[in-house]
Amino acid sequence: MTASHPGTHLAPAVPPPAAARSLTRTLVVVAVLCGLAVVTLLAIHWITRHDDPLKSPLLAALKEQLVAEPRNEALKEQIRALDLTLRRRHAWLLAVYGFGAWFLLVAAVMLVLMGKALARLHVTPSLPQPRPDAAERAADTARRARLLTFVVAALAAGGAGWLGLSARSVLPADPAGVEKLLAKLRGEEDATDLPSPAEYAANWPRFLGPTGNAFVPEAAFPLQFDPVGGTGVRWKTPVSAPGFSSPLIWSNRVFLSGGDVSNRVVLAFDLATGQPAWERPVMNVPGSPARPPEIPESTGFAASTMATDGRRVYVLFASGDLAALTFDGAPVWSKNLGVPHNPYGHATSLATWQGRLLVQFDQAEPEDNLSKLYAFDGASGRVLWQRNRPVGASWATPIIFDAAGKPQIGTLGGEWVIAYQAADGAELWRAKLLSGEITPSPIFVGGLFIAASPADRLFALRPDGTGDVTKSHLVWESDESVPDITSPASNGELVFTVLSHGVVTCYDLKDGKPVWEHELDFEVNATPAIAGNRVYLFGTKGRVAVLAAAREAKELARFDLGEGVFASPAMAHGVMVVRTVKNLFCVGPAAGARPEAKSP
Amino acid sequence: MNPARRSLVFSLIVGGLLLWLGQGGSARAELRFPPPEFESDYVMPPGITTPPPRALAWEYVDLAVLAGTLGWAAWLVHRRRSRRGLATLSVFSLIYFGFYRQGCICPIGAPQNVAYGLFNPGYAIPLTVLLFFLVPLVFSLFTGRTFCAAVCPHGALQDLVLLKPVKVPAWLEQGLGTLPYLFLGGGLLFAATGVGFIICRYDPFVPLFRMTGSLFMLTLGGAFLVTSMFVGRPFCRFLCPYGALLRVGALFSKWRVRITPDYCTQCRLCEHSCPFGAIREPLAAPAHPAALAPDRRRLGWLLVALPLLMVGGAWVGRHLSVPAARVHPTVALAEQFLAPNKPAAAPGAPTPETRALARAELEAPTIIARAADIRRRLTTAGGWFGGWVGLVFGARLISLSLRTTRTDFEPDRGACFACGRCYLYCPNERVRRGLISPAEAAGLNANLAAAARNRI
Predict the structure, then answer these.
(1) Topology adopted by domain A191-591
(2) By Cβ atoms counted within 10 A, which residue in A28, A388, B153, B332 is the most buried?
(3) Are B4 and A16 inside 8 Å of each other by CB?
C-alpha cells in the first residue's frame, strides 16, 4: 500500500493541508452568497408579483374606465404611460432574474468543485467490518421492503380512491347526460314546454305583435275613446318610469319597460284591471358601466320594446343591459352587451324564437365591425350563436318568419337587408336596397318581405333566394310617401304607412301601387295599428285618427287623448293597450263581453 | 501546487468563464416578455420558454451525438473501465444535451410521444423522436444502463454534484422502487389520452437547464439538486420513468457491469463503494430446503393476489377520470363554463380567462363534446393505468419474495448506473491497471482474511 494514491481506500488518512482550510472558508463564503442570491431573488419575486402588465389591477381599472369614456384622450395617455412603466419594470425584472440565474449557476459549479475536492481530502479509509449472516440480512431487508411496498400501495390506493370517489364535476358522466346537455346548449330544449303557435298568436309578445305587422283580424274596439273622461276606456294607470317602448300582452299581464339615467325597471300590470302587479329594477347588471352613458332624451333608456317567449320576459336598455325575468318578476339572468355606439341611442326591439332571445345590436359605423346579431338561450342567457353584421347603427327590429321551408330572421341595417337562418344564424340572402338611417321595421305578409328605406323606397322581396338577391328577388318598389320613422302595417291585402308629418298612404300588397293617400295634419311617431277593418293612428301630441282599412280612403273618427303617444299599441284578448307619455290605458269592450284570460 | 489549491483555482477559472458566457443569457431573457394581444392576423413567433424547433438535419445530428456518446460510454464502461472517462463524458452530455439542447428532445419524455402517436391517429411521431426513445433501450439490451452512466443530462448533473453520499437503506430503496413505474404509467396515461405530457411538465431539471420556469418547478429542481449532493441520483433511483424501462432492458443485457475484471476474491473492499446501493453481496442457498417453505407459501399467495390487485387497481383507476381530466385545458374550460357561479364576462376589459369563457360561450357544444370525449377516454385509460399499478405492486412484492443466490460481489443489473466508481476498489482492477503488483494484491487479501478471522 502506498500513500501516493489518496482516496483509494488503501492509503492511510492524511491530515488536510493548510490550503484545505482556505478551501473550506471559500466554500462557506460561496455557499452564503448562493443563499443570499436565492433569498434576494425570492424577495424580488414576492415584492413585484403584482407588477405584471397583464394582471395589474390598476391598469385593468383604467381600461374599464376607458370603456365608459372611449373618447377620453387624457385617460388613454395615462393608460399608455402606465403600460410602458409596467413593461419597462418587467423587462428589468427579467434581466435581474437572468443575471441571478447565471450567478447561481457559477456559484453552484464552484461549490461542487470545491466540495468534491474537500470530500477527497477528508476521505477516511474503510475496512470491511464483521456483519451478520448475509442470508439473514437479505431476508430482513426483503421483509421490510415488502412492508414498505404494501404501505405505499395502500396509500396510493387510498389516495386515488378518495380522489376519484370524492371528485364531482358539473360535466355529466354518462353519455345520455352529455347528449341532453349538448341539446340544451344547441337550443334544442324540450319543445313541448314552448307555447303553441296558437297561444303565441293569441297574445302580443313582441313589437308590433306576434306577426310583426301590427294587425289583429278580429277586434271590436270603440271608434272613439277618452282616457281623461273614461269613455271607452276600461282602465288607466300611471306609469312610473318614462320610455318609448311598446307594451306587451301575455295572458292576463301587461309588461312594460321604462327608465332613465338613474333607474331602469320592468313593470307588470293586470290586464283586466290595470293594477300594478310588480315592478322590478334592472340594476347592477354584471359588466354594466359604472357611469350610465349619455342617451338623447328623444330616445331615452327604454326605447326598445320587450319580448316574451311565453316563459320569460326579456328587456334591453340603451345602456346595453339585457335581462330575463319570470312572469312574476323574479330575475333569471342578466348581462351587459356593452354600451352601443349609437348617435340616437339604441331602439331596436327584441324578438324571440323557439325559446331563444334574438338581439339585433347594430352600432357605430360599418367599418368598426361592432354590429352583431345574437341568439341567447332564453333560460340561461348563454350565447348560442352570434353573427357579425356589415352595417352601422340602425333602429329597425328584426322579423322572424317561415319562408322557403325554413324559419328566417329578416333584418335591416345600413345598406343591407339580410336574412339569417333562425336555427344557427347562417346568412341566407341579402339585398342592397337601403339607405339613410334605418328606423322602420320590416314586415312579412302574403309571402313577401316588405321594408322601407326611409325617404327612399318601399319595397317587397321574395325571401326564397340565396346570396345577393338585390336584382333577382325584388317584386315591387315604390318611392311615394315612404315612411321615415314608423313601420309599415298590413292586413294581408293592403299595406299602410304613415310619415312622421302625418301623411298616410295605402298600397296594394301584390304590386306596391299606391291606392290612396290621406293627410292627418298631425305628427305621428307610432306605427299604425290595424284592428279588424280599422286603422288607428296615434299622434305625438295626443291626436288620434281612425281610418277605414279599405281601398277607399275614409276617416272614421278623430279625437284627442289629452297626452302624446310615441309607442305603438298592443292588441290582444279583445283589448288595446296604449302607452302615452305618462300613462297606460286599456281600450276594449266591457269586461263581461270578452273572454277571460288564462294565467301564465 | 497541492490538489486543494488546484481545485480552488480551477473553480474560479470555470466560474469566471461561465459568468462571461452568461451575459448572453441575460439578453435572451428580455425576449421572454409576453407580447401584446394583436387582433389582426399577426402570427406570433415561437415561444421561447420551450426551445424552438430545429431544422431536421440538426435533429439527426443530435441523434448521431446520442448514438456516439452511448457507444463511447459503453466502451468506457466495459472495455476501458474508466471512471474518469465516464465523468468527462458526463460533463459533455450535461453541456450538450442539458444546457445546449435544453433537455429537449430527450429519451425521458419520448415514451409520451410514442404513447400519443399510438392512440391518436392524427399525430405522426417524428422518426428522430422514435429513435431517441429506442436507441438507449436497444443499448440497454446489450450494454446495460450506459445511457444513465454518462449520456443522460439528468443523471450526469446528479452524478457530478454528488459530494458526500448518504447510504439509503436497502429496504427503503427497494420499497420505493415502484415509484418510477407509477410515474411511467401516469405519464403514458396522460399522453395517450392527449391530456398532456406530464413527464416533461414536471421534470425538475429542465427548468435548471433552461434557467427559466415557474417558481414551483425551479424550487423543485433546486431541491433535487441539493438532495443529489448527499443522496446519489435521487431522481434516477426513485422517479425516472425512462429509467424504469432501462432497468428492465438491463436485466437482459448481453454484457453486464462487473466490479472485478476477472474473478472476485471476496475481499469486500467494494461493498460500500457504490453511492447508489447497487452492489449485491454473495448469497448462498439455504442449507435446508424446509427453510424455503414460508417463502413458497408467501409467493403462492402473492401470485393469487396479483390478478386481484390488477382488477382492484383498474376499478380505482376508472374513477380517477374526473380529477385527471381537469388537467386538460378543454375540460377545465368546460367545467368553468358550466359552473353555476362563474364570473360574468366584462366585455370592456377582457382578461385571458374572460376571453376563454367568451370563446367557450360561442363554441359551447363543441367544447362540451370534446371535454366529455376526453373524460370518456380517461375512464378507459384510467382502468388500464390502475391495472398497471396493481401489476407493478404485485410484481414488486413477488420479486421481493424470490430468493436469489450469488457467489460474488456484483452490481444489481437493473439498479447499476454503470458509473464506474466501484472499479478501483477491486484489487484485481488495480493489478490490471498496474497500480499494484499481483503479490501486493495477494498479500492484501491475506491480511483482510486474517483480520476478519481475528474479529470473529
Answers:
(1) Methylamine Dehydrogenase; Chain H (2.130.10)
(2) B153
(3) yes
